[in-house]
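Per reviewer request, we include the raw input and output of the structure prediction for the construct analysed in the revised manuscript.
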Amino acid sequence: MRPSPSLARRLVALPFSTRARSRTRVRATATATATATASPIVSRRDAPRDDARDDRTTDVPSARALFALFQKPFASASRAMATTITFVTGNAKKLEEVRAIVGGDGSFALTSKKIDLPELQGEPEDVAREKARLAAAALGGPALVEDTSLCFNALNGLPGPYVKWFLEKTGHEGLNNMLAAYEDKSAYAQCVFAYASGPDDAEPTTFVGKTHGKIVPARGPTDFGWDPVFEPDGYDVTYAEMDTETKNSISHRFRALEKFRARAASVIARGDA
């Protein structure tokens, strides 16, 4: 009995279909093997499970540490951009005193240079402003100058800003002799700082500090101006006899520089504008 044509076709097709599926499986297996060999990437689904993975500790920086790292370049840039102010003086001890009082908040850096400025006459603040203008022009940048006075009340403020020359000519004893005929020995020390932001600053800013006291015979070290003859009110020692910390907390220079420090950021920003 001969099989029907339809049955024959099924019998013939069956081996071919089976062989085709077998070849397909072989090719798929070969492709998967080649892919796994060529690439280290393993899908999450096929990756082996690590039940201890959740027990491992990862060193992740804290938010504070990340913020500090983020801030570092900006802090460095801020320091790099800080304005350098030249304090006009050739007196190393005076520079040391000014630095000790002013300190620093990062808005400026203080250096010094000796400049020969003309000797000016007039009111202390006017003299300080003009000196600041001349210094800024000579430096080509920001300048801080100081004009110091020792004023005797009995002499209506003399010697005032000229005390330096009186001291050079007469010494400490001569300063005392100026008041020999007067019962009033009271005096005040005055310091005027003037800041010019640059050669084009037509109106330097002034900062005035005063400390009241009296004139006495010289006591203490004699290497810093008229300090030995000035005894501030409320103390039984002269400027020269005081320790640095005490003097820097009450002196005329301290009072003027405190005002400068309080306004430094604004006056420097005005010059940078």
